UniProtKB/TrEMBL annotation, chains A, B:
Keywords: Cytoplasm, Phosphate transport, Transport
Protein name from the UniProt record: Phosphate-specific transport system accessory protein PhoU
Annotated GO CC locations: cytoplasm
Domain of life: Bacteria
One Pfam family here: PhoU
Residues in PhoU domain copies: 17-103, 122-204
Record flagged with keyword Signal: no
Family as reported in the entry's similarity comment: Belongs to the PhoU family.
């Protein structure tokens, strides 16, 4: 019985890791769709989200069943408790990738982004993919040290996001308001993706140590 | 023992309702800060958020203790399971109010919003406050019908948000890009506040009925 129980816990943890991997891939493809006006990539992100949503529902059912049937305590209860919260964060990461992909799809075959912010988005995309990877690794390794790396990557994202606003309000900016607004919202989707990855790390630290690290202060945006 | 247990469940539910009420008040004050360049209101929203964050931590501890010590099953387990998810949504509603307040604070004594979008934000503020109230009522009454009302209010918010973008891309728009970007992001904060209130309703329906209503499709933004 204990073996089946631990098998269920391991399965739940593996599912979270897989969901995180899918969210990272979705953001990678969404960035490709955005930068290269790649409509096939956009469509794939949008179509694949159903799979992530189904995995979310399945993971929630498994977490519920674990609580109902196994009544875990101590560290194992923390695992399930954290999983319930992590599931929501990871699904949101995937949804943010869909937001990016839907804008690319709507504007296709036009490229959404003006030349001067393309590099910034390429960099935000790289950091987002790295954050997805790191969050997945933390979920699999249960290593609280990995959560610190997530923070560093999030700091890099915050710097890029601030840099994006610097470009947007620069006197040299010569694009329509609609382009500016879309660029700002797209930036926000990357920044929120990073925040959710950091949140995954915080919850893993709670599961492993019983202590929840402090949250970052809420920024202006 | 059963009595103490139900007292704990009731206390958790009451805390969620109170948190929701605080998030609604925060968005009301943040809207006042935004529309009237009322710096005292902005400061109050920012300062009060610590209380909501502390309530979140306390509610999570209580939910954890309920699972660990009482090992609820069936409907009572659904209550606690839903509570864990609702806590995160309600805290996020409060954080979005802080985002609005911080922009008002940063721009003070200047008014952030151009004249032509003020009415739209006044309306979004009203809908947000109504959503906070409705979510609180649903939490207290456990009435799944109330969740339907949340959906209607969210539809109203979506209409306002779309209308805001109509104003932003109108040829008559004559403001700096920075104003346009800030206006768009502010609109997004209200729209997300509404989404989280709807999510609270979905989770209450799950707690009461065991069925989780379908999510809305992800929109372009």
């Amino acid at each position: 019985m204990r073996t089946a129980y631990h098998g269920q816990l391991d399965h739940l943890a593996a599912q979270l890791g897989e969901m995180c991997g899918l969210a990272g891939i979705a953001m990678k493809r969404a960035t490709q769709a955005l930068l290269e006006a790649d409509n096939a990539a956009a469509q794939q992100v949008i179509g694949d989200h159903d799979r992530l949503a189904a995995m979310r529902a399945q993971a929630e059912r498994e977490a519920f069943a674990l609580l109902a049937l196994q009544q875990p305590v101590a560290g194992e209860l923390r695992e399930v408790f954290a999983a319930i919260q992590i599931i929501a964060d990871v699904e949101r990461m995937g949804a943010l990738a869909v937001h990016v992909a839907k804008i690319a799809e709507r504007e296709h075959p036009k490229r959404v982004l003006p030349e001067e912010v393309r590099q910034c988005f390429a960099d935000m995309g790289k950091v987002a993919i790295a954050l997805g990877d790191s969050a997945k690794q933390v979920l699999v390794s249960r290593d609280p040290q990995g959560a610190a790396r997530l923070h560093e990557q999030d700091d890099a994202m915050d710097d890029l996001y601030r840099g994006l606003f610097g470009l947007l309000i620069d006197d040299d900016w010569r694009h329509d308001i609609s382009v500016g607004v879309e660029t700002a919202l797209l930036g926000r989707f990357y920044e929120r993706f990073a925040d959710h990855a950091v949140e995954v790390g915080r919850r893993v630290v709670f599961a492993v140590t019983g202590e929840l690290p402090a949250e970052d202060e809420i920024s202006t945006y």
